[in-house]
């Protein structure tokens, strides 16, 4: 149906009428989108079935990537490009007077994630399939993804997100493969053939129904599966109050939890975690047993990866099945479990490590808790052997202690591989946060620097730049992104540099139109587009950026006209319960209001807050950026991946030596990046010796005292005491994230960046060098490393188109 334009049009029109029940002229964009989506989904079916059959026939090792989040965004364009039918569809639709772009806009974002961690999972799926690797995702089909953000009077307001309102054309409900998940109840113990046997008698069971989505690789025949589980009432509920049972059951997959490490310990979140893990492991084992008969060689054919600790119950769940159901001896089951499971850590903030109080855990998951206790007991015995008498060490490493289950400790003990997501982050894990575990298991620790799929983040979202690159070095980079390095040979080619500038200008115009449409504000595309888009967190220091804008405003008001015009653009969601983060959003909007309405300033600087930052908006933002703000307090950002998306689209980084910025610097060289601020070692030293005093910076730096005073002295006419808590965090609470400490060096580097922008060709050369060095940060490279060094999986016999 996609082999030629005429055939496509015919099928499309017939299908449109059949499925929408309307004639073509009466059909809406959404009808047309859905028709096309269903056609594409059907088109992949053949390869999907073949991929599944092949893996059943040839007994190839498979990896399952368990993640509580998959931040997929839209799928239509990605699927069209990966399947190689983009052109036929675009031209066929054009004949019918339909713009493909308009249909794409009808697709809701699948926003089943908070940010970096969830988006990484989505990039990994694309790379797995594109590299012909047998790797599948397992997640939750949340009815509502991350909340929709509105800005009302400068404040964030949250609305429930509704991506499933009109159905999801990419999924297939597999009711036949549903599994039952037990909760609550008690554990019965008996003796059978001289062996203690445990049986969980659940108080309630929930049905997990899988919805499968095809993941088609770029120009290959591999189609992997993303299996998302939905919670439904069990067909035989044994509950007194049926309505209440139905409601409680469905709640499990109703909402994605916003990343709120301040607000932990919600029972529903734990229920979600076990729901995902238990359903996934059961279905993995069922399909394994169909193929192999018994569980003996499980670890040789299956790898299970846990994305942070959220799915860590995979460890006790696999143990439970092997010991209770497969009647395996504990030691053998443990060896299989450890060699099957691998774990990625995404955070250095020790306060963010997951812990669950026993009083919540034990009643909800009584058998899993017993197994966790047994794992803990054996683990502590081993520690005692190795560190006799070192009770302090044993207590601090225990999996269960102080009335809590430590999920990271369970992951460290129960997996064979633990990785950080950038070199610096892995070093911090080894030598600080997880030092004792590194001493115990040095062989488990390894680094896998994050990556992004260059297909979504360059080929699809910046088609003009992608076209220019393909013209210059051929299209080989799409399969082998490290070949982007060949672009470096054009560093002195001024026609290439001018082309780059032109493309950037066009992308800036597109973003300017979006800004106009969303905010009513006109922005100047010849100004520097200086962009910070990411979740709002104190450690990411959006505050440093805003304070610096206030300082620039003050300079302008003092008559300094040596200012390179700049448009500051922000996008950020704050977790609904994160008071301080919400204050920063209000501050950004308040500064925007002041600056944009002051005729003395708004010719030189403007401030834009784009509401509801999400994948589809990101795709318009990255291609239009001149400056990428990556300004976290050094040591706090595990990796960052937005930094890579900006770089790949030719933006220059203003950043600290944190996360993957360090590796970006190594690749682009210091002349092509703007590095400032404390290094991680310095931050960690300050934190240890307590010698930082933010008040000194207030007293010694006039720029700083002026700005901080402005937060509370009526400078913002209607603000009242709105920003007192921000001023207090900086002065009374000693500025935990070293905003004032880094202010001077930030202001200095921003001046340097502005000067560099003044040299047009010089800037484009730097931009080119960033693009050229970005191939290393493709998730294809990352996934190859996981496949070779952790999962030990091989590509399916090459059958690329
Ligand atoms: C915790 C408790 C309750 C509810 C939700 C959560 C929760 C949810 C999501 C906690 C954390 C997350 C997400 C974390 C995350 O995205 N981390 C980022 O991972 C990226 C990919 O590795 C890194 O690039 C970022 O540096 C890291 O911050």
UniProtKB/TrEMBL annotation:
Example GO biological process: glycogen catabolic process
Entry keywords, A to Z: Allosteric enzyme, Carbohydrate metabolism, Glycosyltransferase, Pyridoxal phosphate, Transferase
Keyword Glycosyltransferase: yes
Reactions accelerated catalytically: [(1->4)-alpha-D-glucosyl](n) + phosphate = [(1->4)-alpha-D-glucosyl](n-1) + alpha-D-glucose 1-phosphate
Name of the protein: Alpha-1,4 glucan phosphorylase
Function: Allosteric enzyme that catalyzes the rate-limiting step in glycogen catabolism, the phosphorolytic cleavage of glycogen to produce glucose-1-phosphate, and plays a central role in maintaining cellular and organismal glucose homeostasis. Phosphorylase is an important allosteric enzyme in carbohydrate metabolism. Enzymes from different sources differ in their regulatory mechanisms and in their natural substrates. However, all known phosphorylases share catalytic and structural properties.
A GO term, aspect molecular function: pyridoxal phosphate binding
InterPro entries associated with the record: Glycg_phsphrylas (IPR011833), Glyco_trans_35 (IPR000811), Pyridoxal_P_attach_site (IPR035090)
EC number: 2.4.1.1
Signal peptide positions on this chain: none
Modified residue annotations for N6-(pyridoxal phosphate)lysine: 645
Family: Belongs to the glycogen phosphorylase family.
GO CC annotations on file: cytoplasm
